Amino acid sequence: MQGRISLPTLCHFLLPWAFITFHRALGDQAPHPGPHYLLPPIHEVIHSRRGATTTLPCVLGAPPPSYKVRWSKVEPGDLRETPILITNGLHARGYGPLGGRARMRRGHRLDASLVIAGVRLEDEGRYRCELINGIEDESVALTLRLEGVVFPYQPSRGRYQFNYYEAKQACEEQDGRLATYAQLYQAWTEGLDWCNAGWLLEGSVRYPVLTARAPCGGRGRPGIRSYGPRDRKRDRYDAFCFTSALSGHVFFVPGRLTLSEAHAACRRRGAMVAKVGHLYAAWKFSGLDQCDGGWLADGSVRFPIKTPRPRCGGLPDPGVRSFGFPRPQQAAYGTYCYSE
């Protein structure tokens, strides 16, 4: 009937107005009229876990006549941006290893949000949603932050054995990656107090101190102590590793086993000897509490404590305790296994 407005036409006019009104209600400035098309994100930090599917929001207040949206990841420690996905609103093309797990959400015609499936440890970081319209490009930045746990790591040879690249490899071998400064800081606020300096992902060397003391940088204020710029190839320190939630589970097998017998015991149960990162993740996310030392894949013996108690490590705080690296032939411990 003439004189009536159809529902699709009404939505065409009202949807941009609704987004602008929503942001005004939250105290955000409305998009400037003209070439400013992207709405500022309501939350600039998006929290997720390894293995989850997460969405990085990017919404247009109004569509330009013609445009492309490019998603990229800002690599830590340099100015390089790695492209993930480019779309013109109808078709999208992914790039690199992350592009194979990323897609556009397309919840509505103004939605340029990015969906990442199977989030990995290396996905944490800063992302940019850039609108390219050939007149005045603009972008919004978001940070993907994974829930996880930081753990200090050194090899059986003792402290300060890793250059930067060896530290990076060591963390990856233990189901983790080098922690960022932000992750170390978060761990410090949650109680991490460690006197050995370790490499971080950005290439810096630091250590977290809660209780200032003479053998640990002096009696100054608590905080994250820094060694300043270091040579990534020549200088040697420990590593601070980061890991997140597991897709499988960790369980304890009792006994008086050698390291080789521990491997055999886990294989008989369809599992593998757990890595250090597996044990920390199970302690952090699954509440694993076991007052028995057990072999891990790197040859160390550790046990996780959620509820501190006498005769169970002797320390007042929860954590993963370590017996160091006993002789592999020493038949004195059980083992922690990991099964997908």
From TrEMBL:
> Mind telling me which CDD domains this protein's record contains?
Link_domain_HAPLN_module_1 (cd03518), Link_domain_HAPLN_module_2 (cd03519)
InterPro entries from the UniProt entry = C-type_lectin-like/link_sf (IPR016186), CTDL_fold (IPR016187), Hyaluronan_bind_Proteoglycan (IPR050691), Ig-like_dom (IPR007110), Ig-like_dom_sf (IPR036179), Ig-like_fold (IPR013783), Ig_sub (IPR003599), Ig_V-set (IPR013106)
> Which cysteines bridge via disulfide bonds?
C195-C216, C291-C312
What are the recorded Gene Ontology BP terms? Answer: cell adhesion; central nervous system development; glial cell differentiation; positive regulation of neuroblast proliferation; skeletal system development
Q: Which SUPFAM superfamilies match?
A: C-type lectin-like (SSF56436), Immunoglobulin (SSF48726)
- This chain belongs to the protein called Hyaluronan and proteoglycan link protein 2 isoform X2
Give a yes or no for keyword Calcium in this entry.
no
Species, as recorded? Odocoileus virginianus (White-tailed deer)
Does the keyword Cell inner membrane feature in the UniProt annotation?
A: no
Any one Gene Ontology MF annotation carried by this entry is:
hyaluronic acid binding
GO CC list = extracellular space; perineuronal net; synapse
Subcellular location(s): the record lists: Secreted, Extracellular space, Extracellular matrix
Q: Where in the numbering of this chain does the Link domain appear?
A: 149-243, 246-339
What does UniProt give as the signal peptide span?
Answer: 1-27
What UniProt keywords apply to this chain's record, in alphabetical order? Disulfide bond, Extracellular matrix, Repeat, Secreted, Signal
* Gene it is expressed from: HAPLN2
| Domain Ig-like, chain residue ranges per copy | 35-143
